[in-house]
Amino acid sequence: MAKCDEGYLCDVCGQDVAELTDSEMYLRYIVGMLDPEVLHTTPERHIRCNPALAQYIVADDFPPVVVEGPFDKRTLDERYVGRRERLLTRGWRRLNEVAGSHTPIIEYPLPEVLNEIRRRSAGF
């Protein structure tokens, strides 16, 4: 099978990341953690296959993820955790919003991330 016929395989579990709403790579892109220039070279994984990131999504329709150990959000600064939860939850909601839409990939990010991408590409 040609690589392009395999789909996007999770580099953690090896299974297909079949749904955009499960994509950790696109979630990181939407929230500004991943530059659009490296999307095509970035390994893919399921959001839940990166529990250190997934634990910050706080939504009724996203079952909570608990991390034990040094990356457990319960052991971190509350302000940091709050900011992270707000950002990643907004990002996850945006990911669900663009899934199945005809939104161009360059317009997936949150508004403030899009503004920063535009600012950088304009050379400011």
TrEMBL record:
Q: Write down the superkingdom of origin.
A: Bacteria
Give the protein's recorded name. Answer: Uncharacterized protein
